[in-house]
Every structure is written in structure tokens, then in C-alpha cells.
Here is the input.
Amino acid sequence: MNVQILGCTELRAADGQNIAVSPTVSRLLATLAWSANSFVTDEDTIGRVWESRVPVRPRDALYTLVTRLRKALRAVGAPGAPCDVVRRPGGYTMVAAEEAVDVLGFRALVRQARNAQCRGAEEAALQFYEQALALCHGRPLSDVRTAWADAARITFERELRTVRTNSAELALGLGRCGDYVPLLHELAAAHPLDERIASLLMLALYRSGRQDEALRCFRSTRARLVAELGVEPGSRLRMLHERILRRDEVVQGGRPVWAAMAS
Here is the structure.
């Protein structure tokens, strides 16, 4: 992996050494890597890199910046994971292998996880999800403080939320409840009105022998929904709550997650 943007923007050599580049080159790297293998116009690139402080001759400045970035990429490039910046009419494309840019690798692993899940290979799917999540090292583009980066982070955080939730649901179905309780607590704290996350946390707690905590989770989720949205929990969450109250065998470990949560 040469380019890392799921955290701070970093360019790394094959031996793991971080290659120093200027802050402006780093912003260009982040801009093109985020849209790797897609065309980015000169205007968009200039806006993302300089925002309101555009140079007097922006296209000349961009050309110089691209030259510096190409030099850095070629210095650390690996034969099996190529990564280069290619000029197209009116803009640039970072042409990169999935192994060369972490966000590309993340999305490729998520696709493999979904394909494995469709085949019924749940263990393999969970492994792919976990490998994808291991590529995330903090807020993406965390060193880029621009309007474009803020919007990109919001988009990716939605993707990440879905992946983390899907991986937790798979893990619960495979009996790994205790391992995923901390992740589900974190997700529930970040998204307190998400009933799917609340259901998974309740189920994980109950299957870990923590019935009281599971019931408290329902009460706190219900209170937030009523106070903030003026609605009661949906049928699935209410049904799960009732089944946990009466220790229904459907919610015992080893049962499919969808069955335990179904209305």
C-alpha cells in the first residue's frame, strides 16, 4: 500500500517508510487518490487544493505540483501496485492498483465481502469486512481541512457505518457476540436513533449474558426516539425487547440474527 488517506494523508515506500512531501503536494495527493481511477477536472483539482487562495496562474501551479507528485510516486512505486498521475484533456486521473491506495482496497474488500455473503460464505464475508476495517486509521483525510474534504468525509463515514454494522451483524450470527459488543456500543453512541444498531447491541448483550444491559439499551433508545423524533420504536425493536424480556429461545445464541430480530 503506497497511498494512505483513511486517516492522515501519507505516501509510504514498500518498506513502510513515510515519504515526506510538501503540504500542497499532500493535498493534491489526497484529492486525486480519493477519486483514484476517475477523471478530475483541472477546475475541481484547483478548487480542492487551494480553495479560496488560488495562485495567480493556477494551471501552471497545478502542472508544477503534478510534476512533483509524479516524481514522489515513481520513487516509491512497487511493480505489483502501480500508481501514477495521467494527464487527460482538461484534467488528471490517478491510475492506481487497488493495493496502492487504501480507499480503493477498502472498497474492493467490501465488494468481496458482499459477494461472499450472497454465496452464503459468512465466515469469508466477515474476514473481508474485518480486513477492510483494518485499513481505517482514523478520520479520512484528517489533515485536509477544506469544504471538499469535509463533504468527502461525510460520504465515507456513511459507507463506514454500513460496513461496521454489516460486519457486526455477521459476527453475531457466527456466535462472536462478546467480541463485537465494544464496536456496537461505539456505533450506538454515535448513532443513538439507529434502531438496527440498537437491535444488534441488545442482541449482542443478551447473548453475552447481559440481559439487564440489553433491556437498559432498549429503554434509553426508546427515550431518545420519543424525545427527539416523537415516535415509538419500530416493530422489530419492540419485538426483540419482548423476546429478551421473556427469554425467548429465538434470541438465544446460535439462532440467525434475522430470526431473532424479525417482527
The chain is about 60% helix and 5% strand.
